[in-house]
Amino acid sequence: MIPSIHKRGSDTVGLIRYLYGPGTKEEHTNPHLVASFDPLTPDPGRDPSATYQHLQHLLDQPVNALPKGRRPAKHVWHISVRASPEDPILSDEDWAVIARRTVAATGIAPDGDDAACRWAAVRHADDHIHIIATLVRDDGRRPRLHNEARRAQAEARRIEADYHLSQVAPGDGTAAKRPTRAARHKAERLGQEAASQELLREHVRRALAGASDETEFFDRLAAEGVRIDKRLAPSGDVLGYKVAIVGDRNKAQEPIWYAGSTLAPDLSLPRIRKRFTAAADLEREATAFYSSGVSAPARARYAAADATDTARAAFAFGDERTAAAHLVGVGEVLDAIAQTTIGPSRTELREAAWYFERATRSHIRAKDQEMYALRRAARQIVHSGTALGRGPDGTATALILDVVILAVIAAARWHAARGHAQQTEAAQQAAGHLRAAYQAAAAEPLAALRTHGERLHAPTRQRHTNTVRAALPHLADRLQTEPGWDSLVMVLDQAEQAGYDTTALLSKAAAQRDLTSADSASDVLVWRLHHLGFITPPPRRPRPNPSPAPGASPVTGAVPRQEATRPRRRL
Fold it and tell me: Among 3.30.70, 3.30.930, 3.90.580, 2.60.40, what is the CATH number of 2-163?
């Protein structure tokens, strides 16, 4: 059950007309009163003799009884209470009880208070009610509404339990404001895929991902194609900013501006400035199986995989402020991947980034310096350009998604352990979209590895089979039955050619994650080996070929060998 307190207003009869009217899309059906402060309250929906003005006059009576100078400018209070889509349809009697509990919890009409505010609850759909109240009590005083939104949420949780309804994750005050119904309808009219404030929040987060300073942030935000208005001090220093969607105007044909802080609590300029660091970009050189022909986008993704894997461990073993910083950093890496990836996984990545944005915020104060490695990784991804969905770029994208999925799952567990229900749910939603993105990104590189693995000569395949049995005796039989077995054999062959002790490398890869619950243990090991091949250089790197040899792997440029020609070396 979701209670939403709307902006206060001054037009009582205007809101009554809306509640009893057809709605903006003819969605209101059978509007009628289910409860009110007085059982004799006129109901324009069921009583032909009752008018909107009758109901308005009754509700406004305590307001009009005050001298004009003492009347509140915004005296109309409005809350909607909506059931979840999967909940059963409640009766009018049920909604009447819910309405009374809501006005009591919020302070509009506490139980047993005969001089409370006047209110009425209108139902014009199966799944929700609207409550209108006027903010002057019958004794002429104002109601005490401190934290009424939080109290409404708490009462909604109790109502869910009492009526056996779906349990909605409770809020903690760190969520971004949801767009109003009017804003969503306007977005539909303008042909936008989302409300303006949601689109702007996504634009700002994309511009922020990996930005090194304020100048770069605003330059990238301008490149996103949004309007920017900076608030300047007399000295010329920027004090704040607001943004607007081009073409989104009010009735006076003026741009509709949103300050960064209204888009999300962490997007105000002071909060953004805390993310910036002057640390030099540290770009790791790709090693291991990638001795030549590795693109800049692929290298950036390999480096980001290393930083993200460190964050994953921090969620399990780091202190809370470090983990909170890593949440922000992982969010920026995900934003960077989403905007630099093309192909079928792009849509799922955008959805994942949109959901995980909620998981990056909590009341735990982040240790800002702990996010710098991830921010540098995000910057490298953005500045390295767009990654193609094939060859080394496709392999690197699949690898980073494999690592990010594990980090996001770890983040969900971290939030769950602290009772952060909304953040937990958001991280779980993000993980679902990431899995879909991974499936799309991994299909081509895994298929290429599998094809080349199938072509290896029998003695070579047997040698790698023996390696698997030596390193992972408890998993060898399972791995050989999986579709990804040939891909794993091929990666082991590439590692051997690069000079690795494949038994030691495979054992190390298996130790990094429990494989018993993996859908495909062989696929997990493929990406673990690729990742280790990047962060753990062999004792002696093979001499790079100036160009791929005939029959080379389209994934890494490695040539399937007939026989082992180089002795294995220990790590």
Answer: 3.30.930
